[in-house]
Structures are given as C-alpha cells and as structure tokens.
Design brief:
11 helices; 6-stranded mixed sheet; 6-stranded parallel sheet; single chain; about 20% strand; binds manganese (II) ion; inorganic pyrophosphatase (n-terminal core); 2 domains; Diaminopimelate Epimerase, Chain A, domain 1
Length: about 325
C-alpha cells in the first residue's frame, strides 16, 4: 500500500465516529501527533475520541488538549474509523483494540514512520524517512490547508523534539529542521519543552539510571555495551515501567560503543531496548526476537528469565559486529 495524504485528509474531515489510538508506553511523538491531529481536524465533531490504554505521561501535561484522552474502558462510540498513530499494528495499542476492530469492522488507517511489514488497512501515511510521526502530522496539516496555531505548534514540536532528541539524532533531515523552524515561528516555549522532555527526570528514573550503570557490562572489545535493570531493584524503588524509559541511550555514550542494549526484567519476560551507531542495524536484531522499531533504535519483549534472554540476545547482537 502506498502512502496517500489526500485519502487520510478526506477521512479526517468526514466527521464520522473516529478513534485515534496511540501505542502503549506512549512517547512525546505519539502524544504530540495525536493531539495536533485532534486540534487540527476534530472541529465540531462529536465523534472524535483519543484513546490511550496506558496513562499519558504527566510530564506532557503542558500540552493543550491533554484532558481529551480517554481509556478504552471509557469508550462510548461505535467507531466508523480507527486511526493508528506512531504504529501500524492494532496490537501495539493494547489488547483492547483487536477485538473492537473484529466487532465493528471499522475502516483502518495509520500514520506512522516505523519500518513496518505490510499494513493492511484502508489507507495510510507511512514515511520511514520522517523523523517523527509529528513531522508527518505537520505535513498532513499543511497539505490540508489548516492554520497551525501556537497550541498545535507546541504539540508538533514536542513530538519532533522527542523523537530526534532535540534535532540531534540521524533521523533529523533538512525537512525536519525546516518544519521545526516553522513551528518556532509560532512563538512556542521551546525551552520549556526541552526541559520537560530532557531535563525533568523523576527521582525514581534517576534511581533506575543508577541501577543500570551499576550493572553495566562491556563486550567485544568495547563495541557492545549493555545495562541491566533487574525486577528486584524496580520493586525496591517502587519504580514503574516509565521510570525505565530513555535509559538505553546512555549505553552509546561510552566512547567506541557501536551497539547498546538495556535489559529490563519483568516477571516472566525481559524488555530489551536497543540502540546502535550508523552502519549497524538493531531493527533486524529486534525483529529476530519478535520486536521492531527503527534502524538505529529498536526493541522487543522476550519471554524467559533474565539470564536466558540476556544470553540469547547478546549472542545474536555480537554477530552484528
Ligand atoms: Mn515516533
């Protein structure tokens, strides 16, 4: 299926019952893009719903419209359309969505920038060279001729800054920068957004960073670095899953490291986050274990004990070097 902005714009303008969903463990890109589309397109429609299975992170509470998110349990419409944001598989939005699609047979759309295997819906905008879903949303809103106000600009900027690490990662293209510049023109508070996204760690998050560094190991002459957050340490600190976000990126900051991994232990399974330098590909590593993501930033969840999963993933990762 080819990306088609026009079909999605027409669908968003139809004013029918639409559920806009983001992936579980939502990030600033997902939330920002969802809110921007909501503000740009929902208008007077009574049938728009922003649905998120997980709690919306509190550090994003400066975004306008954040109160519009509902949980699947509070869903009160029969969807004519389901739009997936920042993912292309209904399962990524939580266990609630596949049965709902089965029941109501809505038209299915997606707006995403992840490498994806054959989305089979009714329309999509999938650009793997876009830095963020927020970047795609900015293009979509511009193509629709809708004015980007300060609130939408802050939502889109949050999304793009989140996925590019403040325009630092290699996914940042000239287009990303131009869109970012246009958003800055809308008098958003870029400093507040940067502080909220990158300089507002919770104490629990800091404690998990310490655990990860305490359990840091080096392999392959310093080309592979991995960190571990064990379940007991999370329990001791009463840390939740979101307190372990964004820790994996620390692995690549050690000079000489090409591939960085974070193993986060859960009961019965291990979440593995993966990062790598240009020239390597962790997406294939993640896919091998049933996960996915981008070339340089991917992840998966693998059933088994910490030791088992660590052995399996490390063995496969070392072969990439
Ligand atoms: Mn994204």
């Amino acid at each position: 299926m080819k990306s088609d902005y026009g079909v999605l714009i027409d669908k968003l303008r139809e004013g029918r019952e639409i559920i806009v969903c983001g992936h579980i463990n939502p990030d600033p890109d997902c939330i920002g893009a969802m809110l921007a589309l909501d503000r740009a397109f929902s208008g007077e429609s009574q049938g728009w719903r922003l649905v998120m299975d997980d709690a919306v992170p509190s550090y994003l509470d400066y975004l306008q419209g954040i109160e519009r998110f509902i949980t699947p349990a509070d869903l009160d419409i029969k969807p004519h359309t389901v739009l997936l944001i920042d993912c292309s598989e209904p399962e990524r939005c939580g266990k609630w969505l596949p049965p709902l699609i089965e029941q109501y047979r809505p038209e299915l759309f997606c707006l995403d920038h992840h490498l994806s295997n054959d989305f089979t819906g009714d329309g999509m905008v999938l650009e793997t060279d876009a830095a963020a879903s927020g970047e795609i949303a900015a293009v979509l809103i511009a193509k629709a001729g809708i004015e980007i106000d300060t609130a939408i600009a802050a939502q889109l900027y949050t999304a793009i800054v989140g996925d590019t690490g403040c325009f630092r990662y290699t996914n940042t293209t000239p287009r990303t920068m131009r869109i970012g510049a246009d958003l800055l023109d809308k008098h958003i508070d870029a400093e507040q957004i940067r502080i909220r996204l990158f300089e507002s760690h919770s104490l629990k998050n800091m404690q998990m960073i310490r655990v990860a560094f305490d359990n840091m190991q080096i392999e392959a002459d310093g080309q592979l670095c991995y960190m571990v957050i064990d379940y007991q340490s999370k329990l001791n600190a009463s840390a939740g899953d979101s307190d372990c976000d964004n820790i994996v990126s620390n692995t690549l900051t050690l000079s000489g490291v090409k591939i960085g991994l974070l193993f986060e232990e859960h009961p019965g399974l291990v979440k593995v986050s993966m990062r790598c330098r240009n020239g390597y590909r962790v997406d294939q590593l993640a896919q091998h274990f049933g996960g996915g993501g981008h070339l340089l930033a991917s992840g998966c969840r693998v059933k088994g004990s910490l030791e088992q999963v660590k052995d399996q993933v490390l063995t496969a990762a070392l072969q990439l070097l």
